[in-house]
Write a structure and sequence with these properties.
The chain starts with a strand and ends in an 8-residue tail after the last strand. By secondary structure, it is mostly beta strands. The strands form three sheets. Strands 11-10-9-1-12 form a five-stranded antiparallel beta sheet, with no helix packed on it. It has a five-stranded antiparallel beta sheet with strand order 5-4-3-7-6, with no helix packed on it. It is built from no helices and twelve strands. The chain has two domains: 54 residues, SH3 Domains (SH3 type barrels, Roll), CATH 2.30.30; 54 residues, SH3 Domains (SH3 type barrels), CATH 2.30.30.40.
Length: 123
């Protein structure tokens, strides 16, 4: 496990959470490439605003087609919580809160790396 600890509380806007299947279409509103928002795309999906990593989209003019399923759920986290991070992308980590059955995205800026996976058991 790639273990990270939460160093700053984070409360996302739950109104922006969507689950989209592969091959579904979204309307592109704006592409971001600023220092804080690299490769994120603001979209409209079924009349709901959401943000999707550019890598998850095949973009044609003002339309994006998902090249894989996407769940934009972000985690509500408190200082001291530990997150088992599956992968990082565009300034965010995707993982699971230890001791909870919750998975989702968390900004890397609120996390601090603790350790990489242990190989061959505990040492």
């Amino acid at each position: 496990m790639n273990l990270f600890e939460v160093i700053k509380q984070y409360n996302p806007d739950i109104n922006l959470f969507v689950k989209i299947n592969k091959s579904e279409e979204v309307e592109i509103i704006k592409e971001y490439n600023s220092a804080n928002w690299i490769n994120w795309v603001e979209c409209d999906y079924k009349e709901k605003k959401c943000y999707i990593p550019k890598q998850y989209l095949e973009i044609k003019e003002n339309t994006g087609i998902l090249n894989r399923a996407y769940d934009s759920t972000e985690l509500v986290v408190e200082v001291g919580m530990q997150i088992d991070v599956e992968f990082t992308l565009n300034g965010f980590a995707y993982g699971r809160i230890l001791d909870a059955n919750q998975t989702g995205w968390v900004p890397l800026e609120v996390l601090e790396f603790i350790r990489e996976p242990l190989l061959g058991g505990n040492r």
